[in-house]
Known about the structure:
This protein is an all-alpha fold. The chain contains 7 helices and no strands. Mean pLDDT is 85; it is low at 1-10.
Amino acid sequence: MxxxxxxxxxxxxxxMIAESSFMAKVVLVLLVGSSIFCWAIILSKLKTLSNCVxxxxxxxxxxxxxxxxxxxxxxxxxxxxxxxxxVFKNGVRELQRITAAEVVLTSAEKLENINRTLMRxxxxxxxxxxxxxxxxxxTASAAPFVGLFGTVWGILESxxxxxxxxxxxxxxxxxxISEALITxxxxxxxxxxxxxxxxxxxxxxxKIAVEMECFSQDFINxxxxxxxxxxxxx
Length: 234
């Protein structure tokens, strides 16, 4: 920590950062960089998940109002950001593939193949939605401790300066301790939006995963009721 003490009149945020130790500045740079990256993820996820929810609702409304799979397939191209629509399209492709295949399969085997395709697609869609979500969780957990490390380091530097100068009154110690505490404050400020966003996005992704799972079961039931797996709805 630098020996220059700040007067109470000059004790503002900018001055405290300027007078903080090199290690504190490194910690602040790391925290600010993490915060910028987190906000980029947050804004991107807000847009992505909003599109997913909107297009899922539109697709499901179209699906249940249509009379056959061919009609739905013709309308699904505009739902390219809907995870449920993607699950549907992959399920239909598998249905068409096994229906046209020369290998003879029982109805149960065909349904099992389609079900595996639906599950695999759902898992892939969830994994894609969870991209970079771990960074929010890591930042939410680690940022306060990184900030605390900067504070502890700054306080140690302050005590070393006090020992060297021999002065230990509040006027000397106060500004130095305030400078050191900035990193903890910044760490908490970085962690709060990260943890809120992580929990919010995790909840939204779980809902989308449940929608895909429920739709997959409905899709299997529709195919099973068709009897001959021809792809026609009753």
